[in-house]
């Protein structure tokens, strides 16, 4: 092909190329903003820890409502736990005592999920530490196990934050 028989200029094709280029740049910028924003706000890269934060939030909401059956089901990640209570060594009675009379913060009356951080071994960690402020400001750290969705208290580490 020579300059004399070059294809005709196609304005529509050039416009499509421009839209694809600027759209791609915009998409990369949005993904970068969401990814870094989640990390900076304390919810994991790309907000990947929000599921664990919601689970912990539902757990404490059930404790506030004194619905210990529901809270125990969230703790064990088994909504139908009452159909097979013998499966668990940690009994509902002991669980209720641990979160009321034996709790280091007392019975839960208020809570706020603050931040979370992925922790543990491997590329993406084995669990998530969720920081919760309960009963007017006392910080506690919950562990969300990724492989089975169960909760543990206390978490293996504490997070530094204000």
Walk me through what this model shows:
The chain has helices at 11-40, 50-64, 68-76, 92-98, and strands at residues 111-119, 127-134, 138-145, 151-152. The chain is of the alpha+beta class and 162 residues long. It has two domains: 9-40; 48-152. The protein has a four-stranded antiparallel β-sheet with strand order 1-2-3-4. It contains four helices and four strands; from the N terminus they run ααααββββ. It starts with 10 loop residues before the first helix and ends in a 10-residue tail after the last strand. A hairpin with a 7-residue loop joins strand 1 and strand 2 (127-134).
Please give the structural blueprint.
Elements lengths: L10 H30 L9 H15 L3 H9 L15 H7 L12 E9 L7 E8 L3 E8 L5 E2 L10
> What's the tally of helices?
4
Question: Compute the gyration radius: what is it?
Answer: 25 Å
What is the β-strand count? Answer: 4
Q: What does the average pLDDT come to?
A: 90
List unreliable stretches of 5+ residues.
none
* Span between termini: 67 Å
The residue fraction in helices comes out at 25-40%
Major sheet attributes: 4 strands, antiparallel
How many domains? The number is 2
Instruction: Report strand order across the widest sheet.
Output: 1-2-3-4
Order of helices and strands: HHHHEEEE
* CA-based shape: elongated
Structural class: alpha+beta
- Percent strand equals 15-25%
Spell out the key features of this protein.
single chain, 162 residues, alpha+beta, 2 domains, four-stranded antiparallel β-sheet, 4 strands, elongated
């Amino acid at each position: 092909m020579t300059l004399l028989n070059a294809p005709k200029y196609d304005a529509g094709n050039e416009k499509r190329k421009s839209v694809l280029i600027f759209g791609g740049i915009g998409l990369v910028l949005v993904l970068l903003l969401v990814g870094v924003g989640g990390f900076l706000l304390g919810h994991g890269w790309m907000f990947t820890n929000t599921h664990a934060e919601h689970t912990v939030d539902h757990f404490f909401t059930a404790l506030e409502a004194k619905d210990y059956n529901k809270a125990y089901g969230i703790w064990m990640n088994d909504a139908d736990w009452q159909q097979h209570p013998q499966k668990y060594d940690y009994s509902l009675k002991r669980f209720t005592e641990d979160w009321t009379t034996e709790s280091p913060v007392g019975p839960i009356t208020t809570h706020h999920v603050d931040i979370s951080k992925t922790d543990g071994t491997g590329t993406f960690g084995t669990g998530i530490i969720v920081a919760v402020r309960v009963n007017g400001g006392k910080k506690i750290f919950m562990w969300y196990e990724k492989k089975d969705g169960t909760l543990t208290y206390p978490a293996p580490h504490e997070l530094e934050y204000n």
